[in-house]
Each structure stands twice: as structure tokens, then as C-alpha cells.
Write a structure and sequence with these properties.
5 helices, 6-stranded mixed sheet, binds manganese (II) ion
Length: 228
């Protein structure tokens, strides 16, 4: 076996509720503009246009339980989302078989340097500086399908310092989870370890150091994340 010239990166492992085992992350796909009211607040048309995706890096998923305010931004926003973790991959996955590929679900935050994202949007530039920065996706434990089924309805909420900022329902997704998986699989070869962030309802907004964000998804518990 040849040796590596530098230390190989460690695999990214996400905790699983009720288990000591870890879920290994391969890729992170995020859907944009997937709740009509959030599309409107961002100045977009909420019609059922084809979905669009961007990516975060596997090591941006952060189960550690806090969110350090990032560098190079003065307008960092929360986006509470449900994460979908895949146990099987493939290409051209039919919608009616898509859920068979899911390992489980978690609560996640798609933290966004909104000022940098907005500047990138205006110039038609890519979004990585706004979206794919260090520890930009705090995430709670994965709940296996065997325990929680496939949540398709239920309250999704985010509070900051106890005040409700986002309140939506999973049933308001424009593109449902099976459709997302199927659509992505037409463009990418999905694989075990892939994670999809399924979009955020209306009410996104900024946080500052000292704030405490609490996201909850019915059936998946809560995720408490202080901004440090
Ligand atoms: Mn998002």
C-alpha cells in the first residue's frame, strides 16, 4: 500500500440517536428556495420552477453544539432545515423508490453569510463564500427511519433567545424529499453518506454573538445552538 504524503483527512461522522455508531458523510447538497413564503421574502418567484441546489463541504456539518460567528461577515443568518441522510445511492432514481434510499433525518441549520451571498448573487458568482464556510451547518443527531419513519408533515420552528423567528411545516415544501432525491440523482451519482438539506421556511434573519438558536422539527426533537 502506498503511503499518503500528508495525513489523510479524517472521515466526518455524525452521531445517531440511540446508537454509538456514526454516519459517515460523503457530500452535502442543499436545496434553495423550497418553501414558498421564504422564496417570496428573498425576492424570488415561488412557482414550481425546477429545484436548484448548492453544496456545502462534508466537514461543514458540525454536531458539536455551538456556532462560532464566522469571519468576513457582518450579517450571518440562520436557516432551520430538515436534513436527509442517504444509506444508498444511485442515478436516475424514480420518485416512488427514492425514500428507500434514506437512512434517517436530522435537524440542521444552513448558516449563511448573507452579505457575501447577496453580493455573489448580484454579480452572478458562486455561493461558496456565503454558504460553505467552516462549521456552517450545525446538525443534531440522525434519527433512523426505523424509529421516525419519513417525516412529510409537522412543525419546523426556530427561536432566537426564546422568540419564534421561523415557523413552518414540512408539508409546505415545494419539492418533497422523494422528488429532491430523484432530481439530484439525474444530475449527480448519489451514494451512501450523502446528506441533503431540504430548505427553510420564511423568517430567516441575523444572529449575533451571545444569541441562542433553538431549532425543532416535529418528531426529531430540538437542536440548541449558542452563537459564540
Ligand atoms: Mn438553506
Amino acid at each position: 500500500m502506498p503511503e499518503y504524503v500528508v495525513e489523510p483527512p479524517k472521515p466526518i461522522g455524525l452521531p445517531i440517536a440511540g446508537s454509538d455508531a456514526l454516519f459517515p458523510v460523503r457530500r452535502v447538497y442543499c436545496i434553495g428556495r423550497n418553501y414558498a413564503a421564504h422564496a417570496i421574502e428573498m425576492g424570488d418567484d415561488p412557482d414550481r420552477d425546477p429545484p436548484f441546489f448548492f453544496q456545502k463541504n462534508p466537514d461543514n456539518l458540525d454536531p458539536s453544539g455551538d456556532f462560532p460567528y464566522p469571519t468576513q461577515s457582518r450579517d450571518v443568518h440562520y436557516e432551520a432545515e430538515m436534513a436527509v441522510a442517504l444509506k444508498e445511492g444511485g442515478t436516475n432514481i424514480p420518485v416512488n423508490q427514492a425514500l428507500d434510499h434514506v437512512f434517517g433525518y436530522a435537524i440542521a441549520l444552513d448558516m449563511t453569510r448573507r452579505d457575501l451571498q447577496s453580493a455573489a448573487k448580484k454579480k452572478g458568482r458562486p455561493w461558496e463564500v456565503g454558504k460553505a464556510f467552516e462549521r456552517s451547518a450545525p446538525i443534531g443527531p440522525l434519527h433512523p427511519v426505523a424509529e421516525v419513519g419519513h417525516p412529510s408533515a409537522g412543525r419546523l420552528e426556530l427561536t432566537v433567545n426564546g422568540e419564534i423567528r421561523q415557523a413552518g411545516d414540512l408539508n409546505q415544501m415545494i419539492w418533497k424529499v422523494p422528488e429532491m432525491i430523484s432530481y439530484l440523482s439525474d444530475y449527480f451519482e448519489l451514494a451512501p453518506g450523502d446528506v441533503i438539506l431540504s430548505g427553510t421556511p420564511a423568517g430567516v434573519g441575523p444572529v449575533v454573538r451571545g444569541d441562542v438558536m433553538v431549532a425543532s422539527v416535529e418528531g426529531l426533537g430540538t437542536l440548541r445552538i449558542p452563537v459564540t
